[in-house]
Amino acid sequence: MANLKPLVIGNWKMNLDFVEAVHLGQQIGVLLKNRPSEHTEIVVAPPFVDLRSVASIVDSERIPIAVAAQHVNAHENGAHTGEVSTSMLKRLGVTWVLVGHSERRALYAMDDAVVALTLRAAVRSGLKAVLCVGEALEVREDGDQDEWVRHQLRSALDGLDERFTEQITVAYEPIWAIGTGLTADAEQVRAMMTHVRTVLATVKLPDARVLYGGSVNADNAASLVAEGRADGFLVGGASLKAESFLAIIQACDDCYDLKR
Ligand code: PEP
Q1: Do 96 and 69 contact (CB within 8 A), yes or no?
Q2: In a domain? residue 2
Q3: Is residue 242, in this structure, part of any structural domain at all?
Q4: Residues lining ligand 1, CB < 6 A?
Q5: pTM across the whole model
Q6: What is the domain extent for residue 135?
């Protein structure tokens, strides 16, 4: 069954120590108490070392958000210095994980094969996974973005056991729009949302939510969700301030009645 609830995920990247992370989590909690999100599902992805503290505060203060890791290793355990496994995350109260963020792909050599393995490890463990895809500027300039994204989706999702399809969300994040202040316009987003959904139907995931990510902020969120037809957002910079994060959530809430 299609989950049409909007989804907003804050990717805190390598920002905020555990004290700052708890503070931001609490600020989000206070704002949500004053103005609850009626429809939008909310997830935050703090750095590994903050996960336990943020999960605890979310639990003890009953803040209606879930906690994601930004990455996970596909192996169960063993000689993987610096890495963490799905079971370690789950023990901390983490329920979501980002897989194949463009920064992992570009800076830490995460290729399509590793993305596919990681995605499988995540969903087999019971975590919900956000598969991140998106093209670089050169690819878009050559007009090859559809083929690029199709390849990324198919290489990660082809052959995935149907038992796990409900655990998958896709985030389309054009690399040229991440952290640059450049945003894909609503028309570009809409075209890519349609393309991604078409490809997802070919791998038996017609109902997966498709998020947009790339310099989303309080000012552009409403048009990207209403005209761009995104099912929500993966947000970097603007998720580091409770007010701007909540404004994005509010924009999704307000657009809930628009069906794709
Ligand atoms: C991201 O890191 O996934 C992202 C979209 O970042 P920003 O919102 O800062 O562009």
Answers
A1: yes
A2: no
A3: yes
A4: 11, 13, 173, 178-179, 213-216, 234-238
A5: 0.96
A6: 7-259
Q: Could you tell me how many residues make up the chain? A: 260
pLDDT in tens, 188-207: 999 999 999 999 999 999 99
Look at residue 258 in the predicted model and tell me its pLDDT: 58
Distance 95 CA to ligand 1 centre (A): 20
Distance of CA 214 from the midpoint of ligand 1 (Å): 5
Number of domains in the chain: 1
Q: Provide the CATH number for the domain around residue 25.
A: 3.20.20.70
Eight-class DSSP state of 122: H
Active site residue 101: yes
The residues with which 66 forms a beta bridge, in sequence order, are 43
71 is a catalytic site residue: no
Pocket test for ligand 1, best of 7, 8, 9, 11 (most atoms within 8 A of CB): 11
Asked whether residue 249 is assigned to any structural domain, the reply reads: yes
Let me know if residue 1 belongs to a domain. Answer: no
Query: pLDDT tens, 113-139?
Result: 999 999 999 999 999 999 999 999 999
Residue whose C-alpha is closest to residue 27's, from 234, 260, 256, 242: 242
